[in-house]
Amino acid sequence: MRSSKVIDTQTEHILLPVLLMLSSVMVIALIHFAHEYWQLQKPEIARHYDFSDTSRFERRSDYERYLRHLIGGILLLLAVHLIALLARKRWLVLITLGLSVGLLFWF
Amino acid sequence: MQKKIWAIHHWVGFYWGVVIAILSVTGALVLFKVEIDRALNPQLFRVAPGKERVAISPVVERTKKAHPGLDFFQLEMSERPEDSWILLFTNYERRLFPIQQEFFIDPYSGELLGERNKYETFAYFLRNIHVRLYEVFWGRQIVGLAGIALLISTISGFWIYGRFMKRQAFGTLRGKKLRLYMADWHKLIGISALAFNLVIAITGGWLGLQPSLQKWLSIERPNSYQGEDFPLDAKADRNYALNYDSALLYARRYFPELIVHSIRPSSDGSRTVQVTGDVPGAIYERYSQKVVLDKKDYRPKWKYDIREAGWGSKLFFVQEALHFGDFGGTALKLVYFLLGMSSGFLSLSGFIIYLKRSESARQRRAPGALSWKPLLWRWAISLGSLVVLIAAASMVWGVGIPTVVVTVSFYLLLLVYILWLLLRLVGKQWRRLQSSRL
After folding, report:
1. Which of B80, B184, B275, B332 to mutate to test the interface with A (most CBs of A within 10 A)?
2. What pLDDT score was predicted for residue A6?
3. At residue A2, does pLDDT exceed 80?
4. Whole-number mean pLDDT of chain A?
5. Do A17 and B170 lie within an 8 Å CB cutoff?
6. CB burial string A74-106: b at 16+ within 10 A, e below
7. Which residue from B194, B280, B325 is facing A17, i.e. has the nearest CB?
8. DSSP per residue over A15-82, as a string?
């Protein structure tokens, strides 16, 4: 008898690949935002950013905080992805899929 | 339905697998085109940062005067203090040996560091083999079709996998037989790189077919400036004494966020100068932002800022950046490199599965036929030698000679193959006719 909490081969054939697909998108997004944060620390590049009252971020520190939150969020999500992949719990996989799609739409 | 999808996956892989494999390996390498070029030629690209940069105009004028047979195209510069300037001159009169001559300048002394024909560089070889396969007429379109083939292959592969994996847990590797072992790796890698391969296939298909699609659908490049008035004739425009330093100063004033890459004077009589570059934090094709100034008074005539453009333009310019992973530095390129090699591995493993499966039938038809291993080695060595030969010819003679060789060989082989197919068909019909008479 199989437990309903542990995903079986019938459902994992679609759930796990989707999770894996989202993970690769997350890794790419993570590197992009980390690179963006790093570029911001270079004076010759940083002077080209527009931090004025007309732009989305009025101060450089606001933008840095936003990037840090994004990077942290993605890292957290990737950790949950990994646990879900290893544990193969259906509810965990579904939660992490929902969170990933939510985050993807957010940025 | 399942059988049909499997047949599509099989035949697309069979006919396009080799092209996809070549594009996968060259694509993974071309990601680092700039880095490789810099590593091979540090004396041209790197300078010791000084206190102040020299004026641009005297350097351009001096180089123009020293090379009257070349047309000045643009100045390329970088925000990084340790980078040299590049003055790019062209001459396309000798069509078999075209020239894009690069003069490398130390921005702090104005001294010439060296020069070379861009068409004879390893970096150009990498780019051209990946983008055009050195085929002059339809090379880019063939690459675009390979993108479509990869897309069909990825989607059909996912469909087959979905049905198959209902019986087998994800990530299982059955190690008993080589064919099964390869098939399991094929599935595991294919699924792990699914999202990436979809992106590469769609963007690659678009980028390859872009010139034809733009022509057929009348799509203008969103950032191309169309001059309305032409106050000068072409020669006077080319010889106009432009102050490049002032042009740069004004461009920075009108477009402060622009990270300048190049300054390109007009030569069509429009009396303009284009200053192009990037805006920070954007995932778009490199150097697609620009400001166009009047050469006479540096009045802005046009500005293209992708952030203010519509969705269509953004979609147009996001393709190349997504395809080449050019939005996250070297770390992202490394991820792209690994994932990019996956389509090469899929082609290879798919080919091994095919060779292994058809081995007994092959040997039944022709006793003593080669087994899969030597056959694969012969394929790999032949293809590898061909690519090395093209690289060597390209670096010795430039783009012309290898392009002629590849184009002529390609169409000759195609002709021979079609003739062989026709002869086989005629022979078959003839034999059928004979047997029915008897």
Report:
1. B332
2. 57
3. no
4. 84
5. yes
6. beebbebbeebbeebbbebbeebbebbeebeee
7. B194
8. HHHHHHHHHHHHHHHHHHHHHHHHHHT-HHHHTTS--STTSS-SSHHHHHHHHHHHHHHHHHHHHHHH
Contacts of B347 (CB under 8 A, 6+ apart): B13, B17, B18, B20, B21, B24
What is the rounded CA–CA span in Å between residue B340 and residue B286?
20
Q: Phi and psi (nearest 5°) for B342? A: -60, -40
User: Contact, B61 vs B75, CB < 8 A?
Assistant: no
DSSP codes, B139-199: HHHHHHHHHHHHHHHHHHHHHHHHHHTTSS-TT----SSHHHHHHHHHHHHHHHTHHHHHH
Mutant choice from A8, A14, A18, A24 vs B, greatest count of B C-beta within 10 A: A24
- Could you tell me the two tokens for B11? 């035949």
Of B152, B181, B145, nearest to B11 by C-alpha is: B152
Q: What is the pLDDT of residue A3?
A: 47
- Cα–Cα distances in angstroms (integers) from residue A75 to residues A29, A33, B150, B159, in the given order: 10, 11, 31, 30
Please indicate whether, in this complex, the C-beta atoms of A31 and B329 are within 8 angstroms of each other.
Answer: yes
* Subunit contact A20:B194, Cβ cutoff 8 A: yes
Q: Which residues of B touch A32 (CB under 8 A)?
A: 283, 327-328, 332
pLDDT grade for A89, boundaries at 50, 70 and 90: confident
Which of A13, A44, A57 should we substitute to test contact with B (largest number of B Cβ atoms within 10 Å)? A13
Contacts of B257 in chain A (CB under 8 A): 48-50
**B396 vs B42, B69, B254, B392, B393, CA distance in Å?**
20, 21, 44, 6, 5
Q: How far is A71 from chain B (nearest CA, A)?
A: 13
Among candidates A90, A71, A69, which has minimal Cα distance to A18?
Answer: A90
Reported ipTM: the value is 0.85
Q: How far apart, in whole angstroms, are the C-alpha atoms of residue B261 and residue B72?
A: 16
Say if the Cβ atoms of B192 and A24 lie within 8 Å: yes
Q: Do B335 and A28 touch (CB under 8 A)?
A: yes
pLDDT at res. A93: 83
pLDDT above 50 (res B6): yes
Please report residues of B whose CB lies closer than 8 A to that of A28: 325, 328, 332, 335
pLDDT higher than threshold 80 for residue B190: yes
SS3 B227: coil
Contact (CB, 8 A) for B141 and B209: yes
How far does B384 lie from chain A, in Å, by closest CA?
31
